[in-house]
From TrEMBL:
Belongs to the SfsA family. InterPro entries: SfsA (IPR005224), SfsA_C (IPR040452), SfsA_N (IPR041465). Residues 13-79 form the SfsA N-terminal OB domain. Residues 83-224 form the Sugar fermentation stimulation protein C-terminal domain. The gene is sfsA. The lineage of its organism: Bacteria, Pseudomonadati, Pseudomonadota, Alphaproteobacteria, Rhodospirillales. It comes from Candidatus Endolissoclinum faulkneri L5. This is Sugar fermentation stimulation protein homolog. It comes from the Bacteria. Pfam families: SfsA (PF03749), SfsA_N (PF17746). Signal peptide: none annotated. One of its GO terms (molecular function) is DNA binding. PANTHER family: SUGAR FERMENTATION STIMULATION PROTEIN A.
């Protein structure tokens, strides 16, 4: 997935609520930018971090900039959760995910279950559809139960539990269901579920796996021009 052109480099001053950050662009320019990430962003919102912003081209937005990338330990991490679905969709279209090749149609945000939409619905004649839920991952902790692992979630996510329960229902009805963890960084080798952060998500994940929901994780190559899937990594649940 290509990133917007002409990202603006800056220095993070602070993240002062879930949706807003202040960034120093240099030359006495300080801007407030939209933070497209509702999670805790543990370790990724430290004042002084090098960050990159894109320009907003939506006239309805009150803020001119959007936080896209942060740098930690010389690695660039994508924090825009809205990019994950596009990254995965492009990889499916290009046949890069061997578990889900051969489907004829790909649709995004399709209504299913009650008051829910599936991130990606894959269909082909004479086969059950494949319901794909995409989760954006960016957490690595230096301490805790699994130091150095990619982890999800980074905060309590009731929506994530609901999505897993929906996938479980689809699998029980005879459909193919899958959760894909899209990791917008590439500085670890395996992923785990952060059960200490959200025990309910951990239990929902276990129920889903027992019901036949597939789970895979891919990390990404992230630079200033694009974010693309890099390699499949094991999930140590």
């Amino acid at each position: 997935m290509k990133l917007p052109d002409h990202l603006q480099e800056g220095c993070l001053i602070k993240r002062y609520n879930r949706f807003l950050v202040d960034v120093d662009l240099g030359n006495n320019r300080m801007v407030s930018a939209y933070c497209p990430n509702t999670g805790a962003m543990t370790g990724l919102s430290i004042p002084g971090m090098r960050v990159w912003l894109s320009r907003s081209h939506n006239f309805k937005n009150k803020l001119a900039y959007i936080l896209e990338l942060v740098e930690i330990n010389s690695s660039i991490v994508g924090i825009h959760t809205g990019r994950a679905n596009t990254i995965v969709e492009e990889a499916i279209t290009d046949g890069l995910i061997p578990e889900i090749v051969g489907y004829k149609t790909i649709r995004r945000e399709v209504k299913y279950e009650l008051h829910s939409r599936i991130d990606i619905l894959l269909e082909t004649p004479f086969q059950p559809p494949c319901y794909v839920e995409v989760k954006n991952v960016h957490l690595i902790r230096s301490t805790g139960p699994s130091p150095g692992y990619y982890e999800f979630p980074d905060s309590v996510t009731s929506r994530g539990v609901k999505h897993l329960d929906n996938l479980t229902a689809m699998a029980a009805a005879g459909n193919r269901s899958m959760i894909i963890f899209c990791i917008q960084r590439s500085d670890s080798n395996c992923m785990t579920i952060a059960r200490d952060i959200d025990p309910k998500f951990g239990l929902a994940f276990d129920r889903a796996r027992a019901a036949g929901v597939e789970a895979i994780a891919w990390d990404c190559k992230v630079n200033l021009t694009e974010i693309v899937l890099k390699r499949s990594v094991p999930i140590v649940a």
